[in-house]
């Protein structure tokens, strides 16, 4: 997907990294995704996706969830967090936000991404997938 910013691309790669089948399917969705809207809020951003023919790669159920265990160290900030929303089993929106009431930095070209904690945190995503399998086994 070429219309992501450098930061968005790096965050999506980190969020969707791993051997779990659901992450693999979400990576395939990302290859088909197009940015349809990007909104700057002053303290962060929302990037909205559209995915052509998401159905074969759909994960989870019809509910919406947000997950994210990636943060960025950015000079001049207390850090930046990210959340990825799935709607109806498809990538929907990437959110980036500063911690506290800090304004979004003018330039985010110098950043270092890391996971929160020592191990990946899949809490809401794992529950979403588990509930889907229970209600709709494949």
Helix content: 25-40%
- In total, the number of strands is 7
Shape: globular
* Structure classification: alpha+beta
How many separate domains? 1
Distance between the termini: 29 Å
Short description:
The chain has 138 residues and is an alpha+beta fold.
Description:
There is one protein chain. With 138 residues, this protein is an alpha+beta fold. It has one domain (6-135). The protein is 25% helix and 33% strand. Strands 1, 2, 3, 4, 5, 6 and 7 form a seven-stranded antiparallel sheet that branches. The protein is globular and about 40 Å long. The model has no long low-confidence stretch (mean pLDDT 87).
Explain the layout of strands and helices:
Blueprint: H1 6-15, H2 21-32, E1 33-40, E2 44-51, E3 64-67, E4 70-73, E5 80-87, E6 90-98, E7 112-115, H3 123-135
Antiparallel strand pairs: 1-2, 2-6, 3-5, 4-5, 4-7, 5-6
């Amino acid at each position: 997907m070429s219309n992501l910013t450098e930061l968005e691309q790096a965050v999506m790669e980190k969020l969707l990294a791993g051997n779990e089948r659901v992450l693999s399917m979400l990576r395939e969705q990302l290859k088909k995704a197009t940015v349809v809207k990007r909104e700057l809020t002053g303290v962060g951003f929302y990037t909205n996706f559209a995915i052509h023919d998401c159905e074969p790669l759909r994960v989870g159920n019809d509910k919406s969830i947000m997950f994210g265990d990636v943060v960025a160290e950015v000079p001049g900030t207390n850090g930046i967090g990210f959340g990825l929303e799935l709607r109806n089993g498809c990538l929907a929106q990437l959110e980036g936000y500063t911690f506290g009431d800090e304004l979004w930095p003018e330039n985010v070209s110098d950043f270092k991404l890391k996971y929160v904690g020592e191990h990946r945190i899949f809490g809401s995503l794992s529950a979403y997938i588990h509930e889907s399998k229970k209600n709709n086994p494949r």
